[in-house]
Amino acid sequence: MITIERPQAKRFIGVPGMPSPLRSAVFCAVAFAALLAMMVLALSLGDVRFTPAEVIAGAFQQADGGTNLIIFEFRLPRVLAGALAGGCLAASGALLQGLLRNPLASPDVVGVSHGASAGAVLSIAAGVPAALVPLGVFGGALAAAAALVLLAWRKGLDGERIVLVGIGLSAIALTVITWAVVTFPLSVAQQALLWTTGSLAGRTWAEVGVATVAALVILPFAFGQLQRLAVLELGDDLAHSVGLPPNRARLLLLVTAVGLAATGVALAGPVAFIALGVPHLARACSGPTKPGTPSGGILLLGALFGAVLVVGSDLIATSALARPIPVGVVTATLGAPWFCWVLLRSTRKERTAA
Question: For position 349, what pLDDT does the model report?
Fold first, then answer.
């Protein structure tokens, strides 16, 4: 009997000897506790500060009128938007990296995030009300995904072609954004630049509600696709032998990843490096998995880590600096060294294999 083993990392974060499912569960519990603590801290700090007890009361509208207004109406939608955006972007990155078998794959690389941003910028330039801009985001993401599939399809979807076509689509979308910024009035250019940087400012309960519904629909579907992803990792021949059409499975996984990325971008803009870096951290914490085994722990852990990082970065952006800055600036500053490390590590592996 021939067994196929997935390459395993020599080093991973965790307790040696602890089974991967248990290790993933432990890290998920820690990440969830960290997320709750980060959210309470984010709701506490600001021009007006509150105690944790006041934060909890205000979140359930059980405090006085002023506290309820500040916490429930102004701060809580922003914090929840950050958690949802981070979780959706990280989950999208994890799916794409598994689908394309490329550690550097992300919605940014394949053009989805930039297409969504171009849709937002064009909506702003057209004078669309702010509440309807997320529809432009979804439209831009879907248009980028459709172009990606049409241009990359050659008797099926190939990971390398998807990445190459995605890079070209990203360049086109960035050109559209630049054209809008230099052509339209200054007020439109400022809004466009703020959106493309990644910001949680001005998030409302309506936006959070729509994104929550979208996430509750797409995330379970993503977990349901993990078994197909695990089979695809073993090769197309094996997928055919078990009755799984590989091209259809790849298309469904791609659509799922696009939906998650569009949801995250609609809330916070293309927050840099969350979709690229967080899945690597999740895999390092969950440890090696057997080939053909669904990586649900990695997807869940990645979503929790993404939520923690975006909420924490926004806390730094609004409370730890002399003046507030967009959350995308903080994630880009933290993520650039991480990206360089991942790139160097990938290069070293290729040289070692050669």
Answer: 65
Higher pLDDT, 17 or 60: 60
Check if the beta carbon of residue 197 is closer than 8 Å to that of residue 328. Answer: yes
Helices 186-197 & 159-183, crossing angle to 10 degrees?
Answer: 150
Please give the angle made by the CA atoms of 264, 269 and 270, to the nearest 5 degrees: 85
Angle CA 280–94–332, to nearest 5: 60
Which residues, including other chains, have CB under 8 Å from residue 32's CB and lie 6 or more apart? Answer: 304
Query: Helix 246-268 vs helix 76-100: angle between axes, to the nearest 10 degrees?
Result: 150
The pair of structure tokens assigned to 332 is 């880009």
What are the residues whose beta carbons fall under 8 Å from the beta carbon of 34, sequence distance 6 or more? 308
* pLDDT value at residue 8: 43
For the chain, the maximum distance between any two Cα atoms, rounded to a whole number of angstroms, is 69
pLDDT in tens, 135-186: 888 888 889 888 888 888 877 667 678 888 888 888 898 888 888 878 877 7
Cβ(12)–Cβ(285) below 8 Å? yes
What pLDDT score was predicted for residue 1?
Answer: 35
User: CA 194, CA 201: separation in Å to the nearest integer?
Assistant: 9
Give the CA distances from residue 150 to residues 141, 245, 255, in Å, rounded to whole numbers and listed in that order.
14, 18, 13
Give exposure, 280-289, as e/b (b: 16+ Cβ within 10 Å): bbbbbbbbeb
How far the first Cα of the chain sits from its last, in Å, is 28
Band of pLDDT at residue 326, cut at 50, 70 and 90: confident
Count, in order, helices (H) and strands (E) of the chain.
Answer: 15, 0
Q: How many Cβ atoms sit within 10 Å of the Cβ of residue 65? A: 8
